[in-house]
Design a protein that fits this description.
By secondary structure, this protein is of the alpha/beta class. It is built from 35 helices and 33 strands. An 8-stranded mixed beta sheet has the order 14-24-23-16-17-18-19-15. An 8-stranded parallel β-barrel has the order 26-27-28-29-30-31-32-33, surrounded by 6 helices. Strands 1-2-7-5-6 form a 5-stranded antiparallel beta sheet. Helix 20 links the parallel strand 26 (538-542) and strand 27. Helix 13 (343-355) crosses helix 19 (523-534), helix 19 (523-534) crosses helix 35 (861-877) and helix 20 (546-554) packs parallel to helix 23. The relative contact order is 0.06. The model has no long low-confidence stretch (mean pLDDT 91).
Length: 880
């Protein structure tokens, strides 16, 4: 049986997202529910995949299937494609299985040409509408399909408005629209050297190709990389009969949510424009009206829309984001999908849906994106400073939070400022477009002159959890010259100046405002309690100080999976004795320096043990190469030599001797303890004495000592012997009963291969996936960015392999280690302490691999808790 590449909306349903994409599946589902959906068909994701397999050619049998379904549309609508007297016009839209708002392309009003537009004008008795639709089609087709920038067409519109002395597009009359069509077509021919395509079938196939191509445009690739969407999925294409919101005062288009996407309030939220197509609403070119006002202007359509919105939310059991058009007072539904929302709104909606009896606790946990919680865990403006600050301007509160940074006017400049100069930036734009996605991603906040709460800037910022203020019409941007600036109510702000944004109130402040840490209460506490109920993995934190440890406990950490002792040595009061230890020429001199460090380390560990209040603490012994603690510049070497009471020549010789061609694979980790056993002795003494001290005060600490960079069992035996002899002597002398564990960090592939041998000497394994990844790939994480762009362009990699756990390669090593280790020691404790411990997809892998815990930075602990719960619930649903 031949493959089927095209489905009418009536042939699909909501479960077919992999084949029909999210938009196509939802259009089919709404059709099945009997809702007023303009009919059409979906070209499947498999057709897109085949398009790329066939070297970007649509196969003849797919084209034939498209034309056959156009015929079926003609039968359904009673209109004919390309017919002058009763024309069928269509929209062509993308629709991947995962929502990618604004990342791919759309063409509206397809099927118009010089003859059809005359027939449309006669049929509707509305010449202005017909030619407005035609000029829109020329502009969109030229931009999306023929790569003639829409910006140039906007300039032509502005020129005509200036000639006519009007400000708004809808002030142009029918003759003006005819003139625009003429100018647009002339401009197209100037740019492309051919006439604008007039054959509707050609227009349709070229538009389908353009949507397929847009799957691999730069902004779509960046969005997929940010959101872990595989490039192999492809996009579907939805071809739908046009309905027109631009037919006058009884027509309009809008976007609405069944609940407030910023706050989660259970109230219809959205905007619409009279005499407009949908693109006008999201583009922000005209400021829309609140959906509430539609109750007065189009009451019948409003009441029907409210009923449909309620039905859709109950059907999908989630907040819906809907697009609609009203044509001569008749309502049509163009799209529904689970709506993007802020972190605060996501939590409120998840909790409310449970309390309303619509979903279960487990289902609610799966509705919140773990990474969204980041937005709740970052600072807000300090209230005292906020009250004293002068509000320079106000826009719409599009995405909540506080942001402060230097002003930049283009996405490119914002990216350079962040990557090259490590600045925090605020992206200031007239209005954002999908091309700005990378600049939006790196920005602390986004400020736009135009657009409403459903504009591109607002929707994308909410999805990212980025602070955003939209629609501040008082701003005038001057970015044409080298001296870029904007003015706001008489004040001038240059590029590079600081501004602050309050995305919760829509306020704009000139200068920097101080911030305070976020507080977690209410819905967050209730929701996270549900997550903790269902997760299996324990969530630990990476913390090197009592304050970090305390913050992690506040966020729900159940222990420390990685305490990096080297970070303690960089403190001002201990860097000197540590350097004395490095330059020591004898064991005695080295021990004398370590004796100075001992009480400092012991005090640190006591503070951490107290902050963790009985939770387990894994302390990694000294790991980095010693050269990192010494200067490299001649003047710094001379200054330090004087402090150390040695000559500059002697110190320089030591620096040179410590230099390594590849230090991350050199004299570090357990190798330092092999060369200098007295370091391991001092650190063991500090850990054990600290544990004895706090246990005397009623605690029951069982310290976990972790030996890093093991590749051979004999290394572990050597260092473990030092640790055990030192610890046992201290415990015996103190006359106490103290239990402790000695384990190792698994970060070298050889250790994975020999995990059964190493397990015989280890009480626990902790995967250091940062080093394990770079050693498996042979790719330095510090230098990876120099080559990754080339690999992305060549489609060798879809994502940065250092950003999330490589499950097929590194993951195979992890699974092997788990299997080998537990074969020898069934009860061995297994965890992960690399940065991947806070990455949701990596946490899912750790759950499935059978690890006992993950460890991450304090502010990622809630993210890890939620991701662990989702992994457990998804595993049960899959029949785990």
């Amino acid at each position: 049986m031949a493959a089927k590449y095209v489905y009418l909306f009536s042939e699909g349903n909501g479960t077919m997202k992999e084949l029909l994409g999210g938009k196509g599946a939802n259009l089919a589902e709404m059709t099945n529910l009997g809702m007023p959906v303009p009919q059409g068909f979906t070209v499947t994701t498999e057709a897109c995949t085949r398009y790329y397999e066939d070297d970007k050619i649509i196969a003849d049998e797919i084209i034939d299937e498209i034309y056959a379904n156009v015929k079926k549309m003609e039968e359904i609508t009673g209109k004919n494609f390309g017919d002058v007297n009763n024309p069928l016009l269509v929209s062509v839209r993308s629709g991947a299985r995962a929502s990618m708002p604004g990342m791919m392309d759309t063409v509206l009003n397809l099927g118009l040409n010089d003859e059809v537009v005359i027939g449309l004008a006669k049929l509707t008795n509305n010449e202005r509408f017909a030619y407005d639709s035609y000029r829109r089609f020329i502009q969109m087709f030229s931009d999306v399909v023929m790569e003639v920038s829409k910006k140039n067409f906007e300039e032509i519109i502005d020129e005509l408005k200036d000639e006519k002395g009007v400000k708004l597009d809808n002030e142009l009359d029918a003759d003006d629209m005819k003139e625009l069509v003429k100018r647009f077509k002339n401009y197209f021919k100037e740019q492309k050297g051919v006439d604008f395509p007039s054959e509707p079938k050609e227009q349709l196939i070229e538009s389908v190709k353009a949507v397929f191509r847009s799957w691999n445009n730069e902004r779509a690739i960046i969005y997929r990389r940010m959101n872990e969407i595989p490039g192999s999925w492809g996009t579907a294409v939805n071809v739908q009969a046009m309905v027109f919101g631009n037919m006058g005062g009884t027509s309009g288009s809008g976007v609405a949510f069944t609940r407030n996407p910023a706050t989660g309030e259970r109230k219809l939220y959205g905007e619409y424009l009279l005499d407009a197509q949908g693109e006008d609403v999201v583009a922000g070119i005209r400021t829309p009206q609140s959906i509430e006002e539609m109750k007065e202007t189009l009451p019948d359509a409003y009441n029907k829309f409210v009923a449909i919105a309620n039905t859709l939310e109950k059907h999908y059991k989630d907040m819906q984001d809907m697009e609609f058009t009203i044509e001569n007072e008749k309502l049509y539904m163009l799209q529904t999908r689970n709506g993007k929302r802020t972190a605060a709104a996501a939590l409120k909606i998840a909790v409310d849906l449970v309390e309303e009896g619509m979903i279960t606790e487990q289902e609610s946990i799966l509705k919140v994106e773990p990474k969204q919680l980041d937005a709740l865990l970052h600072p807000q403006f300090e209230q005292k400073a906020l009250k004293a600050a002068k509000i320079a301007g106000k826009g719409l509160a599009a995405s909540p939070g506080a942001a402060c940074g230097k002003v930049y006017f283009t996405a490119e400049d914002a990216v350079k400022a962040v990557n090259d100069r490590k600045e925090k930036v605020i992206l200031v734009r007239l209005e954002t477009s999908p091309e700005d996605i990378e600049g939006m991603h790196v920005s602390e906040g986004i400020l736009t002159v135009r657009g409403g709460n459903t504009s591109h800037a607002a929707v994308v910022a909410r999805g990212m959890g980025t602070c955003c203020v939209c629609g501040c019409g008082d701003i005038e941007i001057h970015d044409e010259s080298q001296d870029k600036y904007f003015t706001l109510n008489g004040e001038k702000v240059n590029q590079g100046d600081y501004i602050s944004l309050d995305g919760s109130a829509g306020n704009i402040y000139i200068g920097q405002l101080p911030t305070v840490a976020a507080e977690i209460t209410g819905d967050f506490e209730k929701f996270m309690a549900w997550a903790d109920k269902y997760k299996r993995l324990k969530i630990r934190t990476n913390a090197d100080s009592p304050s970090d440890a305390a913050k992690a406990v506040e966020f729900g950490a159940e222990g420390i999976g990685l305490c990096r002792t080297e970070h303690m040595f960089f403190e001002a009061d201990r860097i000197m004795p540590f350097r004395e230890m490095i330059v020591a020429k004898t064991v005695e001199q080295r021990k004398a320096a370590l004796d100075k460090l001992l009480p400092m380390q012991r005090s640190d560990f006591e503070g951490i043990f107290k902050a963790m209040n009985g939770f387990p603490v894994t302390i990694r012994f000294l790991d980095p190469p010693l050269h990192e603690f010494l200067p490299t510049k001649a003047e710094d070497i001379a200054s330090l030599a004087k402090e150390l009471d040695i000559t500059a020549e002697e110190l320089e010789a030591i620096v040179v001797s410590l230099h390594e061609l590849n230090p991350m694979m050199g004299h570090r980790g357990c190798r330092l303890a092999v060369s200098y056993p007295e370091i391991a002795e001092m650190q063991t003494r500090a850990v054990i004495e600290a544990a004895i001290s706090v246990n005397k005060n009623g605690m029951s600490v069982v310290p976990e000592i972790m030996i890093p960079l093991i590749c051979d069992i004999n290394e572990l035996k050597f260092v473990k012997k030092i640790v055990v002899e030192t610890a046992d002597n201290i415990i015996k002398s103190a006359g106490v009963d103290l239990k402790y564990q000695v384990g190792t960090m698994i970060e070298i592939p050889r250790a994975c291969l020999l995990a059964d041998e190493i397990a015989s000497e280890a009480d626990f394994f902790s995967f250091g996936t940062n080093d394990l990844t770079q050693m498996t790939y042979g790719l330095s994480r510090d230098d990876a960015n120099k080559i990754l762009d080339d690999y992305f362009t060549a489609k060798i990699f879809e994502a940065d392999p250092t950003a999330r756990l490589d499950q097929s390669g590194v993951g195979k090593l992890v699974k092997m280690t788990v299997e080998l280790g537990r074969k020898v020691k069934p009860g061995i404790k297994l965890g992960i302490c690399g940065e991947h411990g806070g990455d949701p997809s990596s946490i899912g892998f750790c759950h499935n691999a059978g690890l006992d815990y993950v460890s991450c930075s304090p502010f990622r602990v809630p993210i890890a808790r939620l991701a662990a719960a989702q992994a457990a619930i998804s595993g049960v649903k899959a029949g785990e």
